[in-house]
Design brief:
By secondary structure, the chain is α/β, with parallel strands linked by helices. The protein folds into two domains: about 70 residues, DNA polymerase, domain 1 (Orthogonal Bundle); about 290 residues, Alpha-Beta Barrel (TIM Barrel), CATH 3.20.20. About 35% of the residues lie in helices and about 15% in strands. The structure holds S-adenosyl-L-homocysteine (SAH) and iron/sulfur cluster. The site of S-adenosyl-L-homocysteine (SAH) has 15 residues, from strand 10 and strand 12.
Length: about 400
């Protein structure tokens, strides 16, 4: 595990209202008894009522919980909050992709942090929300812009769940659980390495998939990892989430360079962990992501190697056109090259393997997250400083 720069907490701070968003059902029951004086035998029922209001109806105010008596509602609002992140910026791409820059303030540990989440509407099918699991990333994959930013900290379960609530507010998708809903999939493909924050990711998945609340099935939740092999089994056992692997190379020499965690957990160990991933089978295939880098990993020979490597694994292949960012050391393969590579993969029986880049115009595509906001804020700061100097 990477060393985290966790914020200092002090027991001398005055008690603050706890945020209900992110508490597991059980934690909420305990908190209701300890902090709001709910009778222990009624805790489960009360927690379920609150849960439905928060995650199914989307309320942010205890006064709207009409099946809870006035006195208890007043006590609840004294000690609890139903917190939403601040939407600092919201950009909509020409293709409908929506990128949110979200700020977590007083209710989060430490100073305000900012993360990005991206809603990708479906084309004739349901849409997905790409969520972040960390602020920045401790890993340094050479093609990824998030990897150039120092890790600030892990996100709490509440901060992960709140990304979903903020998106649902924005696309106005309340109540949850409708048949024709447009937010039906969650992918952990935003900022950060989810398997370095597995406890919080697990709790968040538990809340997001709960049938009384947001109700997105675990089969529609995908966690992408760069290959943190020792945590993969636990991910499967504790979350039953779908797994995606950022493979990107077919030999250790190149993967060591592109995805440096490969030096610790080489391809053979990674693929072995895939073969034994809990629940893996034809109905629950593992997605292998492969970013197309011009002249680096995009030859026909590598396409054939890829097919060979994945032969005994129930797999889907996702070819991702490289999304450039300022100063990135690679170029995206040409469209002809990607198609030739995809042909080989196709002929081996993998259906439509190319992932169309979405939201490129607002830098919301894979690996571009955070880059603009950091850059823009730095340039805005420089402008402010210049203006001050001139005055
Ligand atoms: N840390 C996790 C999840 C976040 S990255 C992981 O690495 O899997 C989500 C996906 O975006 C990964 O497959 C990653 O390899 C890919 N990616 C990162 N930078 C990219 C870029 N510049 N262009 C295209 N895909 C990129
Ligand atoms: Fe981190 Fe994933 Fe980017 Fe690698 S690709 S630096 S693991 S976010």
């Amino acid at each position: 595990m990477p060393e985290l720069d966790l914020p200092h907490t002090s027991s001398t701070l005055p008690p603050i209202a706890s945020n209900i968003v992110g508490m597991t059902h059980q934690a909420l029951q305990h908190a209701l008894v300890d902090r709001a004086g709910v009778e222990p035998k009624k805790a489960r029922m009360r927690a379920s009522q609150i849960w439905r209001w928060v995650y199914n109806v989307g309320v942010t105010d205890f006064d709207r919980m009409t099946d809870i008596g006035k006195d208890l509602r007043a006590r609840l609002s004294d000690v609890f909050l139903i917190d939403r992140p601040r939407i600092i910026e919201r950009q909509v791409s020409v293709d409908g992709t929506r990128k949110y820059l979200l700020g977590f303030g007083a209710q989060s540990p430490g100073p305000e942090i900012e993360v990005e989440a991206v809603f990708i509407p479906g084309v004739g099918r349901a849409g997905a929300l790409c969520v972040s699991s960390q602020v920045g990333c401790t890993l340094t994959c050479t093609f990824c812009h998030t990897g150039t930013q120092k890790l600030v900290r892990n996100l709490t379960a509440g901060e992960i769940v709140a990304q979903v609530l903020a998106a649902k507010d924005d696309i106005e998708e309340w109540p949850s659980g409708k048949d024709d809903r447009i937010l039906s999939n969650i992918v952990f493909m935003g900022m950060g390495e989810p398997l370095f924050n597995l406890d919080n990711v697990r709790d968040a998945i538990g809340i997001i998939s709960d049938g009384e609340g947001i109700s997105i099935s675990r089969r529609r939740i995908t966690v992408s990892t760069s290959g943190v092999v020792p945590e993969m089994k636990r991910l499967g056992e504790e979350t039953s989430a779908m797994l995606a692997i950022s493979l990107h190379a077919t030999d250790d020499g190149l993967r060591d360079e592109l995805v440096p965690i490969n030096k610790k957990y080489p391809i053979s160990e990674l693929l072995e962990a895939c073969r034994t991933y809990p629940g893996v089978g034809n109905a629950r295939r593992i997605t292998f992501e492969y970013v197309m880098l011009k002249g680096i990993n995009d030859s026909d020979a590598e396409a054939r190697d890829l097919v060979r490597l994945l032969k005994k694994i129930p797999a889907k292949i996702n070819l991702i056109p490289f999304n450039p960012w300022p100063g990135s050391p690679y170029e995206c393969s040409s469209w002809e090259r990607i198609e030739a590579f995809a042909d080989i993969v196709n002929r081996a029986g993998y259906a439509s393997p190319i992932r169309t880049p979405r939201g490129r115009d607002i830098l919301a595509a894979c690996g571009q997250l955070k880059s603009t906001s950091v850059k823009e804020r730095a340039s805005a700061r420089r402008k402010r400083e210049l203006a001050l100097e001139q005055n």
